[in-house]
């Protein structure tokens, strides 16, 4: 089988397609013939050596796939979507049965593969942790990304107001999808703009994968919640830059409990990969997400499908902040 390998730490050129022996499922696993595999910003950070949970290089990344079961024989041909603990960017992958789910009706393989990581992350933060209610206001950083486009649809379903940061070229499409207000992070101070839009109150929830936690925290209303689930500001361009990473990290705050209590605010750190052992929780949340697709409330937003042989282009699409929705690799 063919796999996309990260051969060593470095730029996109370190990605290579290699032949590997076909894997054999262990007891309790199924083998999936992959038709589409997700690419996430965590893959970029891992390639640059900035993601501590990544396996030792060389390695194959990938947390989600869609395809058809080919082993065991009695399940052959079942169209499924699955969560993988790395290794998903392969033609064949073996996955524990509890992490495999039927392909939602009416979705293509690419659309289905775009769901697990970004939709589970958005749902887990907004519904499970933030207990989102109608009438609340949510600030979504990187609103045009995979998690961002999922989050704004969840806000719309729960009748919550959404404010999103994105480059100006993406605003109109975001607004047509249901985003209430858009902020151009390149030309506007999002903190000042949020306070203006909320008449000084702030927002009930902030979803921040950029690492601008200090400013995001200041945007919270009383009883607000900050969800920290990434730090894309530590990456600039395709090459590793310790100066960029250190500079971004130096701007991150230390949250002192005595200073937090007067604001009645909360902070959460989210790493869905660390919830791999919580199969019941993930299955329940994914089930709720699938209901949204079945009802037509949710739409999969696929930015592009890129062949394995051009995997470097997938990483460049993310680091260039050019994507709108999910970037996928296809065998």
3D architecture notes:
- The chain is of the alpha/beta class and 331 residues long.
- It is built from 11 helices and 16 strands.
- The strands form 3 sheets. Strands 3, 5, 6, 7, 8, 15 and 16 form a 7-stranded mixed beta sheet that branches.
- Helix 4 links the parallel strand 9 and strand 10 (161-166).
Structural features:
alpha/beta; single chain; 331 residues; 7-stranded mixed β-sheet; 16 strands; 27% strand
Topology record:
Layout: E1 2-6, E2 15-19, E3 29-39, H1 41-47, E4 59-60, E5 64-71, E6 79-83, E7 92-96, E8 100-102, H2 109-113, H3 116-129, E9 137-140, H4 146-157, E10 161-166, H5 171-177, E11 181-184, H6 190-197, E12 203-208, H7 213-218, E13 220-228, H8 242-250, H9 257-260, E14 266-269, H10 279-295, E15 302-307, H11 311-319, E16 326-330
Parallel strand pairs: 9-10, 9-12, 10-11, 12-13, 13-14, 15-16
Antiparallel strand pairs: 1-2, 1-4, 3-5, 3-7, 3-16, 5-6, 6-8
Helix pairs in contact: 3-4, 3-10
Overall helicity: 25-40%
Number of strands: 16
Structural class of the secondary structure composition? Answer: alpha/beta
Number of helices: 11
**Rg (C-alpha, Å):** 20 Å
- First-last Cα distance: 10 Å
Flag low-confidence runs: none
Largest sheet: 7 strands, mixed
Strand-residue proportion: 25-35%
Could you give the order of the helices and strands? EEEHEEEEEHHEHEHEHEHEHHEHEHE
User: Mean pLDDT, as a whole number?
Assistant: 92
Query: Overall 3D geometry?
Result: globular
């Amino acid at each position: 089988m063919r796999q996309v390998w990260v051969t060593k730490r470095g730029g996109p050129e370190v990605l290579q397609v290699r032949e590997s022996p076909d894997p054999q499922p262990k007891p309790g696993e199924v083998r999936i013939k992959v038709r589409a595999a997700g690419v996430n910003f965590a893959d970029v950070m891992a390639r640059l050596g900035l993601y501590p949970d990544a396996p030792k290089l060389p390695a194959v990344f990938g947390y989600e796939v869609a395809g058809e079961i080919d082993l065991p024989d009695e399940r052959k041909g079942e169209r499924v979507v699955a969560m993988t603990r790395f290794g998903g960017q392969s033609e064949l992958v073996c996955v524990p049965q509890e992490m495999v789910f039927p392909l939602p009706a009416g979705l293509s393989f690419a659309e289905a593969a775009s769901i697990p990581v970004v939709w589970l992350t958005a749902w887990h933060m907004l519904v499970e942790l933030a207990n989102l209610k109608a009438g609340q206001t949510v600030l979504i950083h990187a609103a045009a990304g995979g998690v961002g486009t999922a989050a704004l649809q969840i806000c719309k379903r729960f009748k919550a107001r959404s404010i999103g940061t994105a480059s100006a070229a993406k605003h109109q499409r975001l607004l047509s999808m249901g985003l209430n207000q858009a902020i151009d992070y390149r030309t506007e101070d999002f903190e000042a703009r949020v306070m203006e839009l909320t008449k000084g109150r702030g927002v009930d929830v902030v979803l921040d994968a950029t690492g601008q936690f200090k400013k995001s925290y200041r945007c919270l209303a009383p009883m607000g919640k900050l969800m920290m689930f990434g730090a894309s500001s530590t990456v600039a361009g395709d090459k590793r830059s310790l100066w960029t990473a250190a500079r971004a990290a130096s701007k991150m705050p230390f949250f002192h409990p005595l200073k937090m209590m007067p604001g009645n605010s909360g902070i959460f750190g989210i790493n869905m990969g660390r919830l791999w052992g919580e199969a019941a929780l993930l299955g329940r949340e994914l089930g709720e997400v699938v209901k949204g697709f079945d009802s037509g409330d949710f739409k999969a937003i696929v930015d592009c499908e890129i062949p394995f042989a051009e995997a470097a282009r997938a990483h460049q699409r993310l680091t260039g902040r050019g994507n709108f929705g999910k970037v996928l690799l296809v065998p």
